[in-house]
Design goal:
Helix content: under 10%
Radius of gyration: 18 Å
Number of helices: 1
InterPro entries: DUF2807
Low-confidence stretches: 1-24
Organism: Aureibacter tunicatorum
CATH class: Mainly Beta
Largest sheet: 16 strands, mixed
Domain Putative auto-transporter adhesin head GIN: 44-206
Protein name: Putative auto-transporter adhesin head GIN domain-containing protein
Mean pLDDT: 90
Number of domains: 1
Structural class: mainly beta
Length: 222
């Protein structure tokens, strides 16, 4: 019954997403000719993505942004930095019928926040190091994190997966109001407020564990 309910809600959200794009003024389809475009951007330490992008992040000394997509779609992929956060989105009032790929390659010396609002996929390509990392998922994609963090804060309101088993974190705080799956690796303290229908799993043995489970999901060691 739970699985049926979860699948039904998922389909409702997908149909709503499709319905909203149907009101767009212009419909575009990828040409099939994928090219790469390097864009100049200012420094950033956070990412906020909405749309259907696949984002690959590398932490190093360079600040860079490369977009790979159909040549006729690049003009509709908007990227800008506001208050230290890189905003990635598809142009408003444009409905995307089909694309070959919409890949975003980014790098920066620091990464402190990741926010996902679409059907995006965010992947760390090397070990990320952060004093505090905040992850907000309001979409249906996937976030995969590797590296080390002193503090990991997760706010999940979506249906996607947050895979952070390879991100060794001293203290982890999770607020789950969504339906996805969260996997973390907390070494010292784990605090979970679960009000959703998803799963929260931890792979380590934190010295302190606090769980408030008021939802239909589950919290347990993997």
């Amino acid at each position: 019954m739970f699985k049926t309910l979860k699948n039904s809600i998922f389909l409702i959200i997908v149909f709503c997403f499709i319905g909203l794009t149907a009101f767009a003024n212009k419909k575009v389809k990828g040409s099939g000719n994928v090219i790469s475009e390097t864009r100049e951007i200012s420094s950033f330490s956070g990412v906020k993505a909405s749309g259907m992008f696949e984002i690959f992040y590398t932490q190093n000394d360079d600040v860079s942004l490369e977009v790979k997509s159909d040549d006729n779609l690049l003009q509709y992929i908007k990227t800008e930095v506001k208050n230290g956060t890189l905003i990635i989105k598809f142009e408003k009032d444009i409905s995307l019928k089909k694309s070959t790929k919409m890949d975003i390659y980014i790098s920066s010396p620091e990464m402190n926040s990741i926010t996902q609002e679409g059907i995006c996929k965010f992947t760390c390509q090397n070990n990320l190091k952060a004093d505090e990392l905040k992850v907000v998922n309001e979409g249906m994609g996937k976030i995969k994190l590797v590296g080390d963090a002193q503090s990991l804060i997760i706010n999940n309101e979506g249906m996607g997966n947050i895979e952070a088993s390879e991100l060794k974190s001293m203290n982890v705080n999770i607020k789950n109001e969504g339906m996805g799956k969260i996997v973390v690796n907390a070494t010292n303290e784990l605090n979970v407020n679960n009000e959703g229908m998803g799963k929260v799993r931890y792979i380590s043995e934190p010295s302190q564990i606090s769980v408030q489970n008021e939802g239909m999901g589950s919290v347990r060691k993997k």
